[in-house]
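Collaborator request, handled under Task 6.
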Amino acid sequence: MSVKQQSRPKNDTEAILPLASALRLAVSRLARRLRQQAEHGVTASQLSVLATIDRHGSMTLSELASHERVTPPTITASIGRLETSGLVRREVDAGDKRVTRISLSREGRRFLESIRSRKNAYLTKRLARLDADDRATLERAATILERLLEEDGR
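Structure tokens returned to the collaborator:
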């Protein structure tokens, strides 16, 4: 290999790899800490299902499985547990009586709000320790992360 080739700058993937690694670790650790703020007895997957229903409104099991990127049997089992806990309810679709839609129950909304409040309090306490510049940087990063996630969904 010639000297010229050795001094060539790294390709984009190689240059970005350390950032990807650091970001993966930080996001994973933050996600773990936030999960610890949730109620015991409900899995992270079940919380994700509740949040998806809250965000998108009532939906069929098929639609929910698609949003959650899981198989229909997996979402059926998850909804069964959530229904038994009183956090979701099944409703017959007004336009097509053959279709069942899943929505949050009143208790499910209260439960989700309680968990969100605890997680927000956890983050707020930690963010308050940062200076305004660091908080502004994190605000920009949150916007960028959301954009990355939206691109992943396409």
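The cover message to the collaborator said: "The helical segments are 3-6, 12-36, 44-56, 61-68, 72-84, 106-127, 132-152. The mean pLDDT is 90. Please let us know whether this matches your experimental observations."
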